Amino acid sequence: MSTTRRAAVVAIVVCALAFTIAVPLRTYLTQKSEVTEQQQLQSELQRSVANLEGRKAELSDPAQIEAEARKRFGFVKPGETPYIVQLPEDKAPEQGQPQGQQPVPEGSWYEKLWDQVAGG
Question: Measured in Å, how far apart are the chain's first and last C-alpha atoms?
Fold first, then answer.
């Protein structure tokens, strides 16, 4: 065989090996990255489960449930006098019209029309 033919055969063999290895290698790398992502997700979910189990343990105490109800919902026991202290910075904004809207005049539509026609 001549050197050209040997080089061609070697090139064909190398290309065949490269194509044979390329697909499984790509699949391996893709799956490896997916496994890493799933492991991160699993660790996040385990932390979330641990937090929720801790919260469940906290709420198993009736005193904690009572304190939570008082704080979040303002519940009081019978006979207690509830007090709400509202500081100036805690006040809600005035219940006015949203900016950019014209005030709606009082009166019915026909009164408004008569006022415009009569010039008043």
Answer: 114
